[in-house]
Amino acid sequence: MLVSTPIGNLGDVSTRARETLAASDLILCEDTRHSGHLLSALGIKARTEALHEHNEDARIGPVLALLRAGRRVALVSDAGTPLLSDPGFRLVRAAIADGLTVSAVPGPNAALTALVLSGLPPVPFLFLGFPPPRAAARRTGFGGLRAAERAGLAATLIWHEAPHRLAETLADMATAFGARPAAVARELTKRFEEVRRGTLPELAARYAAQRARGEVTVLVGPAAADAAADAEGLDERLRAALAGGSVKDAAALVAAATGLPRKLVYARALELAAERG
Description:
Number of helices: 11
Radius of gyration: 22 Å
């Protein structure tokens, strides 16, 4: 049983989640210490074991054996809905392949909560987990999304991000996606919940000046549908890149981020640099 748990506010735990966990023979936790606090607060004393990225493959066999024997096994992540940017997918896939019943207790989810608070179009949306931590891979990933958008993708984009990388990620997003409307949701359902809305350059500047804390979700509005808006977006990205580097470096950065031909981007960067004087 996949059991969703609160993303911050203990009051969000459902009656069914509480009952399911209390009735479990074993609760698999991303971090037993973290989930132990929740289970203690709920008065649940079921046995717990760790299931994380590094031991999931080794745990699959023993867990499937328990399920075949009729034992009740629950899986929780540190917060929210299991499997989404959390361990458990390989176990679930193995259980399904083995013909075992897999069910879920739905509940809190940070990405969806951020989406409905963002003011951005809620449908369609594309959840992308965490961006790559390294700048080069991150910019390549954003460039791939821009190529998909030029091929017709039009959706609100959603990521989680570590607070210490938020400013540089927003700066890379501003280069890749331009001055698009966006939102940063932080500490959702907790005491210091915050949702900041603005353009990507505005948000990048804000979090460059003031480092974020806590759990963070970043949302970027859909791409504009018309070519004129796309050309304007290229200019905005180039101006932002030119403010901090040479024409050559700005063109290389924007070309990598957007997937556009480097010669085209370089030519436009030269024009904008000449206009700027």
